[in-house]
Amino acid sequence: xxxxxxxxxxxxxxxxxxxxEVGVAGSIVKAAxxxxxxxxxxxxxxxxxxxxxxxxxxxxxxxxTRLTSNGKELARISRFFILGLSNFQRGCLAEEQTFRIGGSxxxxxxSLLPAISGKSLRxxxxxxxxxxxxxxxxxxxxxxxxxxxxxxxxxxLTRPLQTKLLGTWKLELWAPKSLRLNAAxxxxxFHQQQLPLALAKKELDGLGAxxxxxxxxxxxxxxxxxxTAMSSEAVATLLPNFLAPGRTLKSFIRVNVSKINSLVFHxxxxxxxxxxxxxxxxxxxxxxxADALRARMYE
Length: 299
Prior knowledge:
It contains 13 helices and twelve strands. It has about 300 residues and is α/β, with parallel strands linked by helices.
């Protein structure tokens, strides 16, 4: 069945690992950390793979390199294969599993870290790492299995990715009273694009909550940053309701904007079903994670 595949030399785990590392790093130089000996080794190993499969696997892109379409496909197959072997080895050695979870900075701090930092984390047999990533990156990395789970805001993903609803949330516009605007005047200023705003551009992208041409006084990476900026009481900001300062704080007012008030957003846990086939422990972790995050969101 596999006689042709093993009829000649040139294929090995070390060579496939080199292809994966160069693909992730974006160049042989970066993958080798500037070490000329390792650079030579990577170049030789990838050339041997190209000779074995009789196809180009990498190509130049500016000062770096990128995987060709065949290189990406071989990297995808290799990643699944090596991940399966790694999981099998850890199971045989009764080692802890490591799960990588990607999400926005705000969700990680407000929901994910509290959910996975409790008693179950201390007594479980898994290690968790969290990574801040945008939704498009999360989707790509779930396909590549460089992330095990992702927290996203849309349910429709490219196949074969799957999702499970965690909870809903809304946006609220808050303004400091130091701007000397009542709620009606602040709403009018917002519609006229004259309200000084700090906006979490990266986390607002794709939500349709604010006109793209709105010129903010300050742009931030996350809602956490815009919340901090608003605390200076010089700018207003859009915040998720689970992060809003609350109606009881005397220094801020909630500004009603019908377009924003009508929007409802969702958080979903996303994963690649191939992960569950490669790692039997992942199904249990997925279910535990979904339950923990749901409970955290509805506290």
